[in-house]
Design a protein that fits this description.
Mean pLDDT: 76
Number of strands: 0
Largest sheet: none
Strand content: under 5%
Radius of gyration: 32 Å
Structural class: mainly alpha
Shape: globular
Low-confidence stretches: 371-396, 489-544
Distance between the termini: 98 Å
Helix content: 55-70%
Oligomer: single chain
Length: 544
């Protein structure tokens, strides 16, 4: 070793030895945070912030919305824009209601629906208008016959651009909201809502231009171009764009149901759905070029059968989700988490609605102190804490209020009873939602599509169920028997006095009143006649 290297080694400061007895002394010598000279760098923290992502998405959609508004208004004029907007909005509620009905078994959050519609109406429409205009001008300047530029743009360029732009919304939700994208129904709903938003903006443009054409030639009424355009786009084919994009959604839905190890299938299926969507869109746009009656031929021979097939597939997938509840939840009933009747009630949309309505009536009647019992004989209306049978809340026993005071107290009691019933119905609806998510999670586990956090997610869902089962379980049991799902047909005599066997490995949520009150924490203070009313706790029978 040279002398220079020895001298350099001797000149380096000594590193403090880390010994157990000197750890406190070393750390005590560190200055306070405000005197730090070196601070940790937050690499990538901004992109991981949920607030930043929400603001970024909202900003992008807002900019696209303002841009598309300016473009459409520039092409149609102010009057044309207003007329097109008023007519284009008419089919939108029907389309959105149809997709939300399809998603009733395990409804996705509204933020996904709003994002999908906004993406289709603003971002996808803006990309389509700009790309189609550029492609049409490019084709007109490069090919020998510029008169065919519009035809080539509509049959070749427009399907590729528009379906790719709409598919981006499905891809984003598939990647960043993966837990809320579980199968074909989710893919159909997100794709259909996105295409509905796109068709809404496109209809404004077409109807606005048609109105401007009528203004120039003086047409009005049923024979106008506006009426013909509205009939073709909003009456005959309001499902055209949703039908195209739904094929892409089905591809993503099939990919979501595949196991994680099948990477090729999870990649090919969405691409195949996108290609089919482009092909159908191209056939639809080019139908008028084949012959004068080509549009009607394609509509009757191709579009209507495909629409029926896709509708059947979506409804079949919805029924399959209900069957999954009846197949997966009995395992939790056998373990003591659910009553034996609940899986049957949860697998029937009629029974689920009846359970919510029954809980609402039940708790509203109890809050009024009425002797009417919606469950039949044996149910005591005074079982809600704070409700005195035969009395009105806010009236002291023995007091005789005046007419005005009595009317005010009666109104207040009615409002409190309605809020009482709504709280119970909300608890049942939340219970049904969590139970559906639990069945879907177990089905994903059997398919191999869940992540390593399966146990934590399962325990969290069981926790939410346990908080609400005091209200929801008896209502679902009653609904299962009242709808004929059980044999023999009979009503339970004491639905809210039913006892449940607690899960042996989940003792923190036992059946005792002290433990239930300690762990049942509803989202907010529950309305009711008593200050300590909790709609998630089992009502206790008053002493007799």
């Amino acid at each position: 070793m040279s002398d220079g290297s020895v001298q350099q080694r001797l000149s380096q400061p000594a590193v403090p030895l880390l010994k157990e007895q000197r750890v406190g002394e070393i750390l005590a010598a560190v200055p306070e945070r405000k005197h730090w000279r070196y601070r940790p760098r937050r690499v990538g923290m901004v992109w991981r912030s949920r607030t930043f992502r929400v603001v970024a998405v909202f900003t992008v959609l807002a900019i696209c919305g303002l841009a598309i508004l300016a473009l459409v208004r520039d092409q149609t004029g102010t009057q044309g824009f207003l007329v097109g907007l008023g007519l284009a909005v008419l089919p939108v509620p029907l389309l959105l209601a149809a997709f939300r009905w399809l998603d009733r078994v395990d409804p996705g959050p509204w933020r996904n629906v709003l994002f999908a519609f906004a993406w289709g109406a603003f971002a996808a429409a803006l990309v389509a208008i700009l790309a189609n205009s550029f492609a049409t001008r490019w084709i007109a300047t490069t090919i020998a016959d510029p008169s065919n530029a519009d035809t080539l743009g509509a049959t070749v360029i427009a399907p590729v651009v528009e379906e790719s732009a709409k598919a981006a919304a499905v891809l984003l939700i598939f990647l960043f909201r993966r837990r809320e994208f579980n199968g074909i129904v989710d893919g159909v709903v997100i794709a259909g809502v996105t295409a509905s938003g796109f068709a809404f903006t496109e209809n404004i443009l077409y109807l606005g231009n048609a109105f401007g054409e009528d203004q120039q030639i003086g047409n009005s009424g049923v024979v106008s171009v506006t009426a013909a355009t509205f009939f073709v786009r909003a009456v005959m084919s309001p499902f055209a764009h949703p039908l195209f994009t739904v094929l892409t959604g089905i591809g993503f839905g099939l990919a979501a149901a595949c196991a994680r190890r099948r990477r090729i299938r999870r990649t090919v299926l969405p691409l195949l759905g996108l290609v089919l969507a482009m092909g159908m869109h191209s056939l639809w746009n080019g139908s008028g070029v084949f012959s004068p009656y080509g549009f009607y031929a394609v509509y009757a021979v191709f579009m209507v059968p495909v629409f029926g097939l896709v509708t059947w597939l979506a409804i079949w997938s919805r029924r399959r989700e209900l069957r999954a509840l009846a197949a997966e939840l009995p395992a939790y009933a056998a373990a003591g988490w659910l009553s034996p009747e609940e899986p049957l009630a949860l697998s029937s949309m009629r029974a689920r609605g009846l359970a919510r309505d029954t809980a609402r009536r039940n708790y509203a009647v109890a809050a009024r102190g009425s002797r009417y019992t919606p469950y039949g004989p044996g149910w005591a209306p005074g079982s809600i804490p704070g409700a005195i049978p035969g009395s009105m809340p806010g009236v002291m026993p023995g007091a005789v209020p005046g007419p005005s005071a009595q009317a005010a107290q009666t109104k207040a009691a009615t409002q409190a009873a309605e809020a009482h019933g709504k709280a119970a119905a909300r608890a049942v609806a939340e219970y049904e939602s969590f139970a559906t998510s639990l069945a879907a999670l177990r089905l994903q586990a059997r398919r191999g599509t869940t992540g390593p956090d399966f146990a934590e997610r399962e325990l969290e869902l069981l926790h939410h169920l346990w908080q609400r089962r005091e209200v929801a379980a008896p209502a679902l049991t009653y609904a299962a028997q009242a709808t004929g799902l059980l044999r023999p047909h009979r009503l339970p005599p004491l639905p809210y006095a039913q006892q449940f066997t607690p899960h042996p490995q989940y003792g923190a949520y036992g059946n005792g009143p002290t433990q239930a009150q300690a762990h049942a924490q509803p989202p907010g203070p529950g309305p009711g006649p008593g200050a300590d009313y909790n709609p998630y706790l089992r009502p206790q029978q008053p002493p007799r």
